[in-house]
Design brief:
The structure is a homodimer of 215-residue chains. The first copy, chain A, is an alpha+beta fold and 215 residues long. Chain A has 2 domains: 127 residues, Jelly Rolls (Sandwich); 74 residues, Arc Repressor Mutant, subunit A (Orthogonal Bundle). In chain A, 41% of the residues lie in helices and 23% in strands. The first copy, chain A, contains 8 helices and 10 strands. In chain A, the strands form 3 sheets. In chain A, strands 1-7-2-5 form a 4-stranded antiparallel sheet. Chain A has a 3-stranded antiparallel sheet with strand order 4-3-6. In chain A, a hairpin with a 2-residue loop joins β9 and β10. In chain A, α5 packs antiparallel against α6. Chain A binds a DNA duplex (30 and 30 nucleotides) through α8.
Chain lengths: 215, 215
DNA sequence: TAAATAATGTTGCAATTGCAACATGTTAAT
DNA sequence: ATTAACATGTTGCAATTGCAACATTATTTA
């Protein structure tokens, strides 16, 4: 349902990609692939795998600007910021499709399959906007403690459970929240001591009852 | 070009809106309009005016989650987070169109005008993703100083000038950057004293040369 | 135009944070 | 199977930040 080629046959798929002059690439795990795609007005669709868009600032801080799983998009990402500080890194073997946004906008064919393609793209973009808004909501918290709680609560709500599994390492979580890893640990310890959370490896249990933190 | 009805006649426009069961609303300045639109799976398109999506947390902190000018979209915003803490506030008289996202996805008509509408929507969503990514980049900075510099540099690059004009008050800027207003002022003062910026009302001049802050 | 409301500006202080400098535990590569 | 590389965990300390409590200046609105 959130697939770029949902409801589109393989033949139609090939035709669409050809018409849009799209290119498919396969990358191995742990490769930096920026140079291949550093262009404006492109949409990259991650068909399978796992990518991170990383920013390294002049202090050597790594920031996860974006975290991309199956059928997420990127690329428009870079258009307004350009800059050599950014890189796209594969965390797993990944397959991506690069499409020129202008081609999508300009293309004039009215076949049903193309309509379907555009709708799928709309869906994916809508999901992207949601994910970004969640990230913004989390980053808007002023303290590390509130960033953590905000993150846990959102993940918990998504899972419809008070148990959640970190999708990556604590080191990466600190980068995602844009806080110092060791300070984050200090705060995790506080939350544990206060009984608000329990941590067992990547499994986190949230113990927020009808406290006003929760909603 | 970034208009939802770019290249669509008024007649066609009415037809599309009717088919999508879209509703148009006009709101006066400084109204909270959340209740009217608090639904999942809707897209709100701000046709004209100025909106802010605000989050008030339990500490009474106001956070500007989103800042919407002409032809920006919202609504998908709320879907994953629901919550009564959010509100949409008009900062100017505003005209918005509410469309059910599912109707767009399901609609099956292949008229040229509908294709154009979808492409316009894609364009608007793409812009939204870019704006969100910029916001995330700014919020990813760990210090107030770097948030400010990051914001100024991005605005300056957008303007293609080292002079930029704040689109809102300093109070709102602090909310946008998610920092305490008075601490932000302290930092603005530092930046002025170091000669990195000049401030005259809402006009800010950036004096970053080939320093590694700039790129 | 006066009064009310909101924005700007300043400062001390306590709380939070980032950073350095570690120790230990876990995973991956030769 | 051992090393190398990476993730987790801890702590002291200096820097940054939020907050409170103000004064002053703009901007609305009655």
């Amino acid at each position: 349902m959130n697939d770029l080629f949902y409801n589109i046959s393989d033949d139609e798929k090939e035709k669409i990609l050809r018409n849009l002059e799209a290119n498919t690439f396969n990358f191995q795990k742990n490769k930096t692939i920026l140079s291949s795609v550093k262009q404006e007005n492109i949409i990259g669709v991650l068909v399978s795998g796992y990518l991170q868009i990383i920013k390294n600032d002049y202090n050597g801080n790594k920031v996860i600007i974006d975290d991309l799983y199956d059928n997420s998009i990127f690329g428009t990402t870079m258009s307004s910021i350009s800059s050599s500080e950014y890189s796209i890194v594969t965390k797993e073997d990944s397959k991506i499709i690069i499409i020129y946004f202008d081609e999508i906008i300009k293309a004039n064919f009215v076949e049903q399959s193309y309509m379907q393609f555009i709708k799928n793209l709309l869906n994916i973009m809508s999901n992207k906007i949601n994910a970004n808004n969640v990230r913004i909501e989390i980053l808007s918290n002023k303290t590390t403690r509130n960033k953590l709680l905000s993150y846990f609560k959102i993940m918990s709500k998504k899972n419809k459970s008070n148990i959640l599994y970190l999708p990556y390492t604590f080191t990466d979580l600190a980068d995602y929240l844009s806080v110092d890893r060791t300070s984050m640990h200090r705060e995790l310890k506080n939350l544990k001591e206060e009984g608000l959370i329990e941590i067992k490896n990547k499994r986190i249990t949230l113990n927020l009852y009808d406290d006003n933190d929760f909603e």
